[in-house]
Amino acid sequence: MARSRALYEYTEAEDKSMRLGFLLIAAGLLSLLGLGCCWLRPALQERGGGGSANCTVLAVRQLGERFACTFSCGAACRGTARYPCLQVLVRTSRSSVPALLHEDERQLRTNPKCSYIPPCARDDQENSENVTYKQKYWKEKVGSQPFTCYFNQHLRPDDVMLKRTHDETVLLHCFLWPLVTFLVGVLIVVLTICAKSLAVRAEAIKKKKHL
């Protein structure tokens, strides 16, 4: 009995392999739970009730109001500048009511009154030039040409997005990599157990031949 128990005891390398496998299994499960609770659930809520539509520009205008942004000029150097508010009003194929266009969900949350937030520069004039360039882009290059936009009737019925922050590819990776980590851990554990079992059987057969 003692000899049989000794045969089934794992070596140091096998023990490390088993620990690695169980660690990967735990990491994969925790990642799935963490991403599901903290990131995936809000992302699906944002996508719920939403869809795509064809948008056409109705008006492009700058408001007199200016908004503050924070710029960085080094490790310990930060400051505040201002930029004008650009609004792009569009008509969607789903509704006749004009909607305000935004870059994405993140920009919408940062400043729901404007359609564009320029990269924050120290000089207010540079920020104004960036907004004016974007205004010309929507007026002259896009004009009346239809383009794809995204909406969410439940969360923001009066706003549409040019692109989604959480698209299908991001959601796929949210599931894929934790699942791969979990499966690799399971594979390591199973292969270690199988290798040990085969080694024990081979040792038993070898002893029978010598008897």
Automatic annotation (TrEMBL):
Where in or outside the cell it occurs: the entry states: Membrane
* Any one Gene Ontology cellular component term annotated for this protein: voltage-gated potassium channel complex
Going by the UniProt record, its keywords in alphabetical order are: Glycoprotein, Ion channel, Ion transport, Membrane, Transmembrane, Transmembrane helix, Transport
Q: Which residues cross the membrane?
A: 20-42, 175-199
Origin superkingdom: Eukaryota
Where is it predominantly found? Answer: membrane
Q: Does the keyword Thylakoid apply?
A: no
- Tell me if rRNA-binding is a UniProt keyword of this record: no
The alphabetized list of GO BP terms reads: detection of calcium ion
Q: Which GO terms describe its molecular function?
A: calcium-activated potassium channel activity; potassium channel regulator activity
> What is the designated name of this protein?
KCMB4 protein
Organism of origin is Geococcyx californianus
Which gene codes for it?
A: Kcnmb4
